[in-house]
Design a protein that fits this description.
This protein is α/β, with parallel strands linked by helices. It has one domain: Flavodoxin domain (Rossmann fold). The chain contains 5 helices and 7 strands, in the order βαβαβαβββαβα. Bound molecules: flavin mononucleotide.
Length: 191
């Protein structure tokens, strides 16, 4: 079984989403002996913005599209930046959402071609965006990620969420604890 681990936070060792993706990948490793992990760090080795003519010299090692297709499960660290996702993560999405490869337009409209794999997203946010607190309309991060993966045919999507990270150290600690418990107890690991 192959797992693709993608991080995008710029905060390095202080990153909430990096801590959670590491815990998710660890849980998979423990329960799936022989798991092969490919790691892509979009902050340490950013992908250039998509351009019609690729600049090979500015591309970090590895082919993002080949890595996606090789993976059975993809674990993504996705902070909320200005209500959306980090531009580093968007640059990766611009490399994996490719007409004729991961989607096509057929007689019935767009059709995803990358299904059959699981995506687990560790979502970190400074505030709260749940449906219960009235701010969910400002969530262009999780909603966007759900849409983009559905668009390429991936409907097996899980979110592990740490919210209210900027709301004081008690709330941060609670959010992290809850997320780790969720990873250990709720998250489906391996088949
Ligand atoms: C550039 C930037 C923009 C941010 N924008 C938002 C935002 O719009 N809403 C929010 O709730 N938190 C926002 N935050 C807070 C982050 O979502 C929060 O710190 C989260 O923990 C970041 O994930 P990370 O710890 O993995 O880097 C922002 C943080 C940064 C650095």
């Amino acid at each position: 079984m192959k797992l693709l681990h993608v991080d995008s936070s710029a905060l390095g060792a202080n990153s909430v989403s990096r801590e959670l993706t590491a815990a998710i990948v660890n849980a998979w490793k423990q329960r799936e002996p022989g798991l092969e992990v490919t790691y892509r760090d979009l902050a340490a080795n950013p992908l250039p913005h998509w351009l019609p003519v690729a600049d090979a010299a500015s591309m970090p090692a590895g082919d993002p599209l080949a890595e996606l297709f090789a993976a059975d499960v993809i674990v993504i660290g996705a902070p909320m930046y200005n209500f959306g996702i980090p531009s580093q993560l968007k640059a990766w999405i611009d490399r994996i959402v490719v007409a004729g490869k991961t989607f096509r337009y057929g007689a019935n409209g767009p059709e995803g071609l990358a299904g059959g794999r699981k995506v687990i997203i560790a979502s970190a946010r400074g505030g709260f965006y749940g449906a219960d607190n009235g701010s969910d309309a400002a969530d262009f991060q999780e909603r966007y990620l759900r849409h983009i993966f559905n668009f390429i045919g991936i409907t097996d999507l899980e979110f592990v969420r740490a919210e209210g990270i900027a709301m004081g150290s008690d709330q941060r600690a609670k959010a992290m604890n809850d997320a780790h418990v969720e990873i250990e107890t709720r998250l489906p690991v391996a088949a």
